[in-house]
Amino acid sequence: MTELPSHLRTTADAYDAVAVLYADLVRDSLDDLPLDRAVLAAFAELARDAAAGPVAELGCGPGYLTAHLRNLELDVFGVDVSPVMIGLARAAYPDLRFEVGSMDALDLADATLGGIVSWYSVIHAAPREIPSYFAEFRRVLAPEGILLLGFFESGGGPVAAFDHKVTTAYRWPIDDLAGLAGEAGFAEVGRMLREPREGERFRRGHLLMQAQDR
């Protein structure tokens, strides 16, 4: 991977520093989240039906969600900007493929993926950077490929930064994020909003989108 821009280096270094603790915290995090599992299952069914290519989890961290997607019968691999996270993922799931890389400059040919999961992985991108991320997602997705976005929802307020435990992150109005994805060439398939559970601060947003023919 080429040298990272400073804002991505900040994110990578922050996650490198907490990788082991983070992996311990999230390893079983889906067990008590039936709505999250449901939207992941819906994504998996749509991606299987589209049959447009493999699935990439972008911002895969220690790989627990990549493994969950594999268990949903997807041909899946993971990409993350943090080398330490990728090392943990490879150690925990040696049967899966994990690569160090940046979501806004993927080492993939055009239209090669059937699906992308971005599970709380664009949350650290400044608002002005989001269109370039979505443009890259659209570039590598085949027509009719499926995109799943998971993010912190703003609860009726505007996009706003907050003090994420690892590094600065942003909460988004779900309509605004859906609009930016639409401008990049995606059509909305469905959405799910989940209220915060005990120990969570913010509403969670989920968008299922489909890549449109250019």
From TrEMBL:
Name the record gives this protein:
Methyltransferase
Methyltransferase domain segment(s): 55-145
- Quick check: keyword Methyltransferase in the entry? yes
> Entry's InterPro entries?
Methyltransf_25, Methyltransf_Superfamily, SAM-dependent_MTases_sf
Picking any one GO biological process from the record gives: methylation
MF GO annotations: methyltransferase activity
Q: Where are the transmembrane segments?
A: none
Which UniProt keyword terms apply here? Answer: Methyltransferase, Transferase
The answer to whether UniProt assigns keyword Plastid to this entry is no
Q: Which Pfam families match?
A: Methyltransf_25
